[in-house]
Known about the structure:
By secondary structure, this protein is mainly beta.
Amino acid sequence: MTKALRSLILALGFVTVLTATASAQVAIGLTGGVNSSTLTGSGADTLDVSSGTGGGGGGYVNIYLGSKFSVEGQLLFAGQSFDVSSVSVTQGYLEIPALLKFYIGHFNLFAGPAISWQVSCSTDLSATTCDQAATSLWSGIAGAGLQFGKLGVEAHYQTGFSDAIDNVNASVGAWYLMGRLAILGSR
């Protein structure tokens, strides 16, 4: 982990702690669901790429900043898969998204960055795709959700800002459908 990245994570943590002390309402819960992922970008256009289905889940902390806004941090495991030139690639990532949410009643819109670290990679052939896969990725998330008390559902798109494979201009793009359960607190 680079020094700049470590400083950014510490600064985000500090802001989150300061915000949590100023806010009266915090929700902690679990989230999980399915995704459809593929490679996108000019490098992916030259490859024979098709999408695959994966899943993931983890926990979240949502800090409400009044009635219209909240800041949410998540710690997730995400399994993503896609086919490249008839080779199936399955990757597992530890992800940390930081989302800003805007509420209109039970409906919310959200967006924010995420950083992911690869924790597993496998192919159905002895291809070198996993050897060339990036071990950390930056991405952006945008989506919408519905929250009714302790239960919720969200759909979002996650697009990579960094290349998923070394020397190939291609990033991972994934659609997610996630369910949510607040364990402590609720909206």
